[in-house]
Amino acid sequence: LLSSLKESRFFYRFEDQVSQFESKLSALDEYLAKLSVIQRKWVYLEPIFGRGALPQEQGRFKRVDEEYRAIMLGLGSDSRVITLTNIPG
Q1: Alpha-carbon gap, residue 11 to 16, rounded angstroms
Q2: Model confidence over 19-48: pLDDT tens digits?
Q3: Residue 83 is inside which H or E element, if any?
């Protein structure tokens, strides 16, 4: 869609806005890819640590788990997916 918009003779009027939107979409793609990897790992590890396995790593997983859940709750409370780009890290 954006590439076809760039071919328009009216593109120069919106060039700044399109450039900003394009970089936001690129960042969003990157964040969603990372979130997918994290989610797959979390789905695998959560039952392991939930059962009490690896007690020496429980504290570390708990901290990561709390941060992950906070991010997911934040995403659930705001249906605008573009806000994902505002999360630090």
Answers
A1: 9
A2: 888 888 888 898 889 889 989 998 998 898
A3: none
> Is 0.70 topped by the overall pTM?
no
Q: Kindly report each contact of residues 20-29 with a partner whose C-beta sits within 8 Å and lies 24 or more positions away, as own/partner.
A: 24/82, 24/85, 27/85, 28/81, 28/82, 28/84, 28/85
Instruction: Report the interhelical angle of 11-50 vs 58-77 (nearest 10°).
Output: 140
Q: In sequence order, which residues have a C-beta less than 8 Å from that of residue 83 and are 6 or more positions away?
A: 75
Q: Which two tokens stand for residue 47?
A: 């039952």
Structural tokens at position 29 = 């793609």
Q: What does the radius of gyration of the chain's CA atoms come to, in whole angstroms?
A: 19
Neighbour-count burial of 75, counting CB atoms closer than 10 A to its CB (0-12 exposed, 13-18 middle, 19+ buried) = middle
Distance between CA atoms of residues 19 and 21, nearest Å:
5
